[in-house]
Amino acid sequence: MNEAGRPSFSLCRTSELQEGERRKFVVNGNEVLLVKIDGEIFAVEPMCTHDGTDISRGKFDPVSGIIECQKHFARFDIRTGIPLVGPFGADGDTQPPLRLYKIRIENDHVHLEANQEWGVI
Amino acid sequence: MAKRGYPDHQPRIPPGWRLATVEKWPINTMHGPGLRPTDWHFKTSGQVRKPLSLPYDEFVQLPHITKKFDHHCIDGWSYLGNEWTGVDMNTIIEMTRPNEGVKYVHVEGENEYSATLPLGQELMLAFKRNGEALPRAGGWPVRLVAPGEFGYKSVKWVQEVRFITEWEEDFWNKKLIGWGEPPIDPALNPWNVNNEERKAGLRKLFTHLLEEKRREKLERMRKSGEIPA
Ligand code: FES
User: Fold this and answer.
1) Adjacency order of strands within the sheet including A83-85
2) DSSP of A58-97, one letter per residue?
3) Mean pLDDT in chain A?
């Protein structure tokens, strides 16, 4: 539970995450990648929407927020999940975006909402 | 059935496709099944007068040809001018002698992967690419090359070619049916599918695949005790 009385999971303190740092959590089998860009924390599922590769260790540019899949080099904006380039120069628009998680920051803690758009965690 | 694909009736690259931008041959399915030369046999079955079962050494001794074909992945990239060496399906047809009325071949690979293709279409059972034996991830020992079709018809790790009289849904068609989508019409040349339709179709496909992957991952975690069953 978080303070708003909504079910959620506490992941870590906001201050634990350094600028540009990525950290992966697994909550009830859901993989969550937290990343801090310009002081703001984003949460995505680190699963490449091309072929399911775990991209949590993919090449990442904390300035532009772009993460690259190591398998066939799809690129995503980690803040929005939007694919920018698909595999081998194919249009990114054939690929679905990365899944974004709803999080809340409370008392210097990052909380992952239990109720996500696609279901309950 | 109308002849499909490059070079007679189609442009060399499907509309909206791009050339692969990496030097290396792109591989979507990385892991081969780990077949061993001693275990592998090339087999024909179904409506044939003489079913074949050939070990690797004999298979590569069959009359073979070397020819260039383009590869088009359904993902939207093409890789032009690969040189394939292998046995033409017509050679197999002559040897195995299909019965009257056979209209299709059902080419079976590993893990239930398969492709149904009309008899009479140019098909090669390739064992070399650009002069080298196929790597395991590339379909070793033998993969199908189906020019004019998208790559998903070019079955890797071919084990058996079944000759059939009626159309049988293959791997991807069965998947689509399972997802409540209409199967790919065998008479439809996918190169003609207009771009917007293709994009929407691919998005759907990727979304379905990701759902499956998530389910599999959860299953694995449950089995390993990482999360409660
Ligand atoms: S799996 Fe990520 S680009 Fe193919």
Assistant:
1) A59-61, A66-68, A75-77, A83-85
2) SEEETTTTEEE-TTT--EEETTT--EEE-GGG-BGGGSPP
3) 89
Complete domains list, chain B, with CATH: 10-168 (3.90.420.10)
- A chain contacts of residue B206, beta-carbon cutoff 8 Å: 49-50, 94-96
Whether residue B63 has pLDDT greater than 50: yes
Residue of chain A minimizing CA distance to B15: A90
Q: What is the ipTM of this complex?
A: 0.84
Domains and CATH numbers, chain A: 8-114 (2.102.10.10)
Rounded distance, CA A64 to CA A79, Å? 10
Cβ A46 vs Cβ A59: under 8 Å:
no
Check CB contact under 8 Å for A90 and B77.
yes
A65 C-alpha vs ligand 1 centroid, how far in Å? Answer: 18
User: Residue A44: phi, psi to the nearest 5?
Assistant: -130, 160
Higher-confidence position of A33 and B208? A33
**What is the reported pTM?**
0.75
